[in-house]
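Example 3.2
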Amino acid sequence: MRLKNTIKDKTLTYALETGTLTKTDRKRLNIFERRVYRRILDPVYDNEKENWRILTNKEIYARVKKPTIIETITLNRLRWFGHVQRMGGNRIPERVLYVNSGTTRLRGRPRNRWQDEVREDGRIVDGEGWQEKVHNREEWTKLLRMAGNRLILHMPVE
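Structure, written as C-alpha cells:
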C-alpha cells in the first residue's frame, strides 16, 4: 500500500526545517506517526493465533514505503540549507544563518544549534563531501533525491 503526501506530513513538518529537535521531540514525533498509521492501516488477522492484532513498527514501515517524519524534516532542512547557501550577496536569510546574537549560553550542556544539526544531517546523507555539492543545484538535488530514496527503504547510508 502506497500512501500519497498527506495533510499530516505537511502540517507536522511545516517550518521544522528552520528549527532543531531534541531527542524527546524525535521520539514523540515517531510515536505519533506510527499511531496515525496504525489507525489508517487497521489491524490484521493472524491465522496462526486466530485473532486480530495491530501491526508492528517494521510492518508499518514496510507497508507505507515513505520516509518517516524525522527523515522528511532532515531532507527539508538540507534542502533549505542548500537554498540559503546558493543565495548571492548579503541577503537576509544568509545573514540570519550566520548571525552571532552576542548573548551568553546557559550553563550545562549546550543545546544543538541549527547549523550543528545541518552538519550532522549532511554527514548522514553523503559522508564528508556534501558541502561542495551545495553550490551546484543539479548535483544537490540529485544528492537529496538519492538520500530520500535510501531513507524510504531505511537503508544505511555509507
